């Protein structure tokens, strides 16, 4: 059995339904809890139940990222810079690195979840 806890959200899962119910009963004696039934979302991960499997999807999170960063109409390319481009410290106007921090932060979160 596994218990996933994030701030005030908890998921109790495992192969033994009796053990899950016992754990929920014991926890509800010590903490105020509400059973929301089958899991549909946890953090930004959508949980899809099928007869044979449980599927996890981050499609909604990715679409929100694309919208938030103004990239809904972008087309994929193999590289974003010219391969022969030589960069140096004095090669022009500085870019704002803070512009890219939220994008990188979101991509890191996407890859670790």
Task: Describe it.
This protein has helices at residues 17-30, 59-68, 101-112, and strands at 2-6, 9-13, 41-42, 45-49, 54-57. 0% of the residues are buried. The chain is α+β, with helices and mostly antiparallel strands and 113 residues long. The protein folds into two domains: 1-37, no CATH class; 40-76 and 87-113, no CATH class. The mean pLDDT is 86. Strands 3-4-5 form a three-stranded antiparallel β-sheet.
Strand content: 15-25%
- Count of domains: 2
Number of strands: 5
Cα-based radius of gyration, to the nearest Å: 22 Å
Number of helices: 3
Secondary structure: helix percent: 25-40%
What does the overall shape look like?
elongated
Helix/strand/pairing category: alpha+beta
How confident is the prediction overall: mean pLDDT? 86
Helix-strand string:
EEHEEEHH
Distance between the termini: 20 Å
What is the topological layout?
Layout lengths: L1 E5 L2 E5 L3 H14 L10 E2 L2 E5 L4 E4 L1 H10 L32 H12 L1
Antiparallel strand pairs: 1-2, 3-4, 4-5
Provide a concise account of the structure shown:
With 113 residues, the protein is of the alpha+beta class.
Short descriptors:
alpha+beta; 2 domains; 3-stranded antiparallel sheet; two-stranded antiparallel ribbon; 3 helices; 5 strands; 32% helix
